[in-house]
Amino acid sequence: MNGSTKYQEDTLSQSEVLESDILVLWLINDDYNTFDFVIEVLMELCHHTYEQACQCAMITHTTGKCDIYRSYYEELKAIADKMLNLGLTVEITH
């Protein structure tokens, strides 16, 4: 019984460590890109459904930014670089 409790405690600690490695990719509002273009990019690069992409585009437009993807740095960096090359404004945060 004590062994399984110890295992659960270790697992929880490992989960907490893994969660701290997860970062957020934010789409920042701009006055240059159309909704259709932003939606297309979100669907292609972030694998959003059409509905998700529309919601993210609207949230970005109304609030100034939107959390569009969560993952590890390497994956977010690759997506962010592609989005920047396409003319979108993004940032990665904790």
In short, what is this structure?
This protein has 94 residues and is of the alpha+beta class.
Spans of at least 5 consecutive residues whose pLDDT stays below 50 are 1-12
* Distinct helical segment count: 4
CATH class reads Alpha Beta
CATH overall fold name? Ribosomal Protein L30, Chain: A
Shape: globular
Task: Sketch the topology as an H/E string, one letter per element.
Answer: HEHHEHE
Please list the strands of the largest sheet in the order they lie side by side. Answer: 2-1-3
What is the fourth-level CATH superfamily?
A: Ribosomal protein L7/L12, C-terminal domain/Adaptor protein ClpS
Give the count of structural domains.
1
Kindly report how far apart the N and C termini lie. 37 Å
Write down how many β-strands occur, each being a DSSP E stretch of 2 or more residues.
Answer: 3
Overall mean pLDDT: 87
Helical content (DSSP H or I, runs of 4+): 55-70%
Strand residue percentage: 15-25%
Protein structure class: alpha+beta
The profile of the biggest β sheet is:
3 strands, antiparallel
Under the CATH scheme, which architecture would be assigned? 2-Layer Sandwich
Q: Rg, please?
A: 17 Å
